[in-house]
Amino acid sequence: MSRRQESVWDYPRPPRVERSRRHLRVVLGEIVIADTTDSRRVLETSHPPVHYVPLADVLPGTLERSDARGSICEFKGAAVYYDVSAPGGPRVARGAWAYPKPAKGYELLLDTIAFYPAAMDECTLDGERIRAQDGDFYGGWITEEILGPFKGAPGTHGW
Prior knowledge:
The protein has no helices and 16 strands. It has strands spanning 6-7, 16-20, 24-28, 31-36, 39-44, 47-54, 63-65, 71-73, 77-85, 91-98, 112-115, 122-125, 128-129, 131-132, 141-142, 146-147. It is globular. The relative contact order is 0.22.
């Protein structure tokens, strides 16, 4: 099935959150640690979509709150970070983040978590292996229909 192309330059600022029924999977250490058809997409100008997975759709025991300092999004609120572990496999420090008390307008992010796709072994959307957004701060998911250029690569910090 071919999807309509989306330019990240048509996405809003402040960002918008919407439900997605696409089949999302996150794999670490050959273990599927997240599998859902009920993610939330955050769409923000210049960024590929970030997908947030309901905590109920994450394999139990794979997330541990990180000791690392959190961060603040001017729109979504205070983020906390999680280390991600595959049972009997690798551990990724700060491999995911969440907004435990999302700001007004971003309540759809309550009880969800976003994974850094570059830190995972594989992330797919409807079976398509996604490409991770450049940079070590952003967690966008790039699929065939998402058009850039994207913030995150060297030289794009001031966008």
